[in-house]
Amino acid sequence: MLNKLNHIVPDLLLKPRFRFYRHLSVQIIIALITINNLSQDSGIPVRDRLWTWLLAWAILDAIVYVNACLLVPRMLLAGNMKRYFIWISAILLLMASCNIFFYFYFGNLTALTVELIFTTIYFLSNICLIVAGITALCLFKNGVENKRRIEELQNATLEVELANLKNQINPHFLFNMLNNANILAGEDTDKSSRLLGKLNSLLKYQISDSSQKTVSLRDDIDFLNNYLELEKTRRGRFDYAVEIEGDCNIQIPPLLFIPFVENAVKHNPESDSFVNLSFYIAEDRLHFECENPKPRLSHPKKTGGIGLPNVKKRLDLLFGADYSLSLCDEKEKYIVRMEFKI
Predict the structure, then answer these.
(1) How many Å apart are CA 13 and CA 142, to the nearest integer?
(2) Residue 146: CB partners within 8 Å, gap ≥ 6?
């Protein structure tokens, strides 16, 4: 029962299908808080009391949504508490002034009375309570969203790691590399030793280093270099280039680029093939580009690997909306462009 309740409450707060009921609940609460305007002095016409109620409702409604949609996300959640409380205080002062004005206008008052002061204090206390409640609800909702985001990211990261262990440590790939090293051992022992060293570094990074939450961009580029160098040894007529501009001593999530590099290698022509990678780091953003030629004869795309949907899902979880990814299918080549905040 408790476990079911733990799922119901977050769903009511986050699921789009409950959005109407969330807004309806807010409107009912505001209506009940402001309905006391109908029970004002019987000397005030009913029409004026109704207008006072509707105005109070509209004003409180505006406060609630300005607080929930602007002040809380852009100030409080951004860590600017001082600015948030200044704005809330200004709004409360404005509401107190409006409340007194309404009583003078609709109630035909000519002087400030004790009853009006207490009525204004009561009105402001109701505003404070509902603003505090909405703020607490927004903070709770943000906490639930962050918790779900972390859980989804952990699950997605685990899936990525398992997929990499299953697909990248490929027996066929290992067989080719070890066979090449064996052939080279009789011809060029130094070259064979270098090949085995790169293979060792590649496997170590895949199995061990990539399990960390973040890795150095330099280490990730070294991993890509080792992968492409091994492919060059295996293929024969294959070239690659890696261009770097900016500071590589930054931390990034591991294995962000290898799915695109794997696809570039996989969908290269059999001869005169190449992969060009570029990394540009500037103004707290990383720009990545991967380019490869298209085969002269198109072949059906093979399934396997991590897959673009999982890559996009992981990028969504890691960076939210603060990234861009474009896949350009040009006449003679494929180009992948990715950019995100670091």
Answers:
(1) 10
(2) none
246 sits in the region (left: phi over 0; alpha: psi -120 to 50; else beta) called: left
In this structure, are 178 and 287 located in the same domain? yes
- For residue 99, the tally of other CB atoms under 10 A from its CB is 23
Element holding 333 (H helix, E strand): strand 333-341
Structural domain for 138, as ranges:
2-148
342 residues of the chain, pLDDT tens digit each: 545 555 566 666 667 777 788 788 888 887 887 776 666 555 666 776 777 778 778 878 888 888 888 888 888 887 788 888 888 888 878 877 776 776 666 555 666 667 667 777 777 777 787 788 888 888 888 887 787 778 777 777 766 655 554 444 455 556 666 666 666 666 666 767 777 777 777 777 777 776 677 889 998 998 898 888 888 877 767 889 999 999 888 999 888 898 888 888 888 877 778 999 999 999 889 999 999 988 766 554 444 444 577 778 778 878 878 899 998 888 888 999 999 988
Token pair of 114 as six digits: 């004790």
d(CA 251, CA 220): 10
Cite the DSSP H helix spans in the chain.
2-14, 19-34, 46-66, 81-106, 114-167, 171-187, 189-207, 217-235, 258-266, 308-319
- Total number of domains constituting the chain: 2
- Find the CATH number of the domain harbouring 301: 3.30.565.10
- Whether 153 is in a domain gets the answer no
CB half-sphere exposure, 172, CA atoms < 13 A: 3
